[in-house]
Amino acid sequence: MKGIPIRTTRSYKMARVFPTDVNSYQTLFGGKLMAYIDDIASIAAAKLSRANTITASTDSVDFLYPIYMTDSVTLESFVTWTGRSSMETFVKVVREDLKTGERQIAATAFLTFVALDDHGRKTEVTPVYPETEEERKLHESAPVRAEMRKQRREASRTLAEFLTKRYPWEPQENGDSDEEGSLDKNAQPGN
Ligand SMILES: CC(C)(COP(=O)(O)OP(=O)(O)OC[C@H]1O[C@@H](n2cnc3c(N)ncnc32)[C@H](O)[C@@H]1OP(=O)(O)O)[C@@H](O)C(=O)NCCC(=O)NCCS
To answer: Per the confidence metrics, is the pTM higher than 0.70?
Structure first.
């Protein structure tokens, strides 16, 4: 097999859910979980690249099951696939009811990291190979996801070109200021 086994990138994080971590439904706040996800996935990517890593994208995070204050939350991440300088990482979030031991997959996510050298230049990463059924499924399906990301990135760039960078209260480029309290109906995209 070419490269190194996916298992060497496996990374884990376990946490309790504290009252300061929950939303008004008393379940784990999505933003908190997303920070955990980025954190653990970056460790998996760093274990492979042994370089600086930067998050290039986060695919949709699917929140499948609520996580309660009586639960523990465990995040597992590993690199599923590599391009040249990019690494796809998968994150699986498991909630466990600490009283009953019952577990559910609470969320899943795919993130892509790019390896950078000490001068901030993209650097090549070693390919990974799967050993378990779970790893194989994720590894084999990765090129399709990578292609979808490429298309999405192009669409995001096109959208970014269209979007205004001007705040509503700022004058337009020609110096005219908007009437107080009114929205600029003539705003030009890309200003
Ligand atoms: C991600 C980033 C380094 C890519 O740099 P770039 O000069 O545009 O690089 P390229 O187009 O050559 O892409 C480099 C690699 O990243 C991949 N990539 C770039 N953007 C991507 C995206 N949105 N999703 C997935 N992969 C992406 C490319 O496919 C390529 O992969 P490969 O080397 O395996 O073939 C650059 O866009 C960047 O710095 N973005 C900001 C990242 C950041 O600040 N993250 C923290 C967010 S708070």
So the answer is: yes
- List of domains in the chain: 4-162 (3.10.129.10)
Which ligand 1 atom lies nearest to the CA of residue 122?
Answer: 14
Q: Is 147 in contact with 88 (CB distance < 8 Å)?
A: no
Does 95 contact ligand 1 (Cβ within 6 A)?
no
Give pLDDT tens digits for 28-64.
Answer: 999 999 999 999 999 999 999 999 999 999 998 889 9
**Using CA atoms, how far apart are residues 170 and 83, in angstroms rounded to an integer?**
43
Give the long-range contacts of residues 135-139, CB within 8 A, separation 24 or more. Answer: 135/6, 135/7, 135/78, 135/80, 138/80, 138/81, 138/90, 139/6, 139/80, 139/81
CA gap 61, 107 in Å, rounded:
7
Mutate which of 114, 116, 121 for ligand 1? The one with the most ligand atoms within 8 Å of its CB, which is 114
